[in-house]
Predict the structure.
Amino acid sequence: MLRTLLQIVLKDLRIFAADRRALILSFFVPIAIASFMGTLSENMGIVEKPKPIPLLFVDNDHSDTSAKLRTNLQKSKALAFHETTDADARNSVKSGTYGVAAVVPKGFGDMASRGGKPELEIVVDPSQSLQAQAVRGILTQATAGAILGGDTGEIELPFQLKQTTQTSGGNQQWSGIAHAFAGMGVQGLLFWSIELAMGLMRERNKGIWRRLRSSPAPMSLHVFGRAISSTIRAMLIVAAVFGFGSIFFHVKVSGSWLGFGLVWVCASIMAATFGLFVAALGKSEQQSRGLAVLVVLFMTMLGGAWFPSFLMPPWVQTVSNFIPAKHAVDAFDAMTWRGQSFNVAVPSCAALLGFAAVFLLIALRRFTGEADST
Amino acid sequence: MLKVSGLFKRFGKTEAVKDVSFEIDRGCAFGLLGPNGAGKTTTISMIVGALTPDKGTVELDGKPIGMDAKQRLGFVPQDLALYEEISARSNLQFFAALYDKPAAPDGVLELVGLADRADEPVKNFSGGMKRRLNIAVGLIHSPDILVLDEPTVGVDPQSRNAIFDTLEKLRGEGVSLLYTTHYMNEVERLCDRVAVMDHGVIIANDRIENLNRLMPERERVTLELDPESPTPELEGVIYEGRKIHIDLPEVQKNLPAILARLDAAGIRYTSINSQRASLEEIFLHLTGRSLRD
């Protein structure tokens, strides 16, 4: 039995190695996408020296108060200050050249000096709402200073804010690169598992499964053998993706290496059995491929492979608990840039193995049953 | 040796196989003849254990087709059920591992004439070579009975001859053959016994010479006339250029009188042939349709 199992695994690995084009694509595609996504998202998180936010300033009031406000805004290191006319400011925001403009209306200073509540207009490009929120905070402080700050036009806050990040690896920064390699690695694995499924369906259409059924080796042995060989292939792909990330993008395992190894194995088992599951349920290759691609895209999108799940709405985060990709990505994140311990990897790995067990059972039932026979 | 009893198989509303029974003796070559859709492949699939019958049994020397019987049964499917990316030898090594006592891959490759291409990927092989390798896989465990499902489909004459040489050699070594096809000449060349199948039912099962008796007792006599001879005017004769065909019962008894009449009329001929009914004609006679329908 073991000899047969070993030969099934060896045969699959020989086929994997023999198809050079598929072999290269299996490794190259996730690496290329991870590199691209990583480069894009590298500065998505908290950075030490953020770029100043461009702000257009319009003074329709020409009062002492508006002059002090101008001075306060010009002093702010968080802003790139530009003064212009009312019409130009509105056009610039409308066209998207600037995200935010602050317009001081006529009579602003006068109303403020009489104890009224004058309005300061903020003109915002709706696609730049994050910039607008940041500018609103700075404007609040600068305007309060201009009105309440006396001759200097400044007020001193009675406290200071100090920001640190908290992971097990110390003051570890969010790593877009590490997350991209985790996310795109998992996505690459799942897309590869679709190819695995298509290969199995081609074998079935070629009559190989009928021939195997006529042999004394039970079909369950073939399914197990295929699960093992596919897991090995998936592990090679993950190793290549993170190896590349480590060498060229300095992706580090800041947490437990043992935990990373466990996630590596469990994610590979999940992807391998997912391929068997797709092949078991699929009818025609074309139909199954289209459906499987759609499912994988949803799985990776909702599972946080494209962008971190903490950026998603709460309901998506709840739904994503039922998506295997989420557990794989979170666990890789935890072991890389979050610097978590082995214990943190265990629940995610248990979830991955649970999904794998369901996929494998369904595949076994279909492949060993009559439904597959023709 | 192989006993098939009362096999039934239904796919949805279609009854693919209905009460199929036959037996194959040791060392016998048994042909299963029928047009596409007759139920041959479904029957074969149940015999080799790839498909479970709804009803009926298949026994090899009294034992049902389980893991033990499968050790003695070889199967050559109609499709080229091979891994094309790897070599012929790797294919055989893999399939050999599924059996308890496999033969050496090199010996089987020698038998099918592929020893010199053993390490080449199968995808580089011609159609005929792939067919031969397909047969080699069925032989890798030296089976007592080899089940072949239309093994020569799409094969050039040279490869077909090579395949037949192999099968005849196997038969000479005592291997039983169950051979499905819709090529008449293959069955006539290889098989001792033939079952004719149509619409999931076996409509005739006998030795080929006995099947001939199902036809009306006639033989077709064909005479090729001498170019300078006048054409005879006879009743019941079919004219085809310089050939005439006469369907005669009891040829040995009736032919001399016909020839004497032709001689008296000054009719000269250059050749004379007689032919019994072919399997194609037998099939047409039994089912009312051609094998290629």
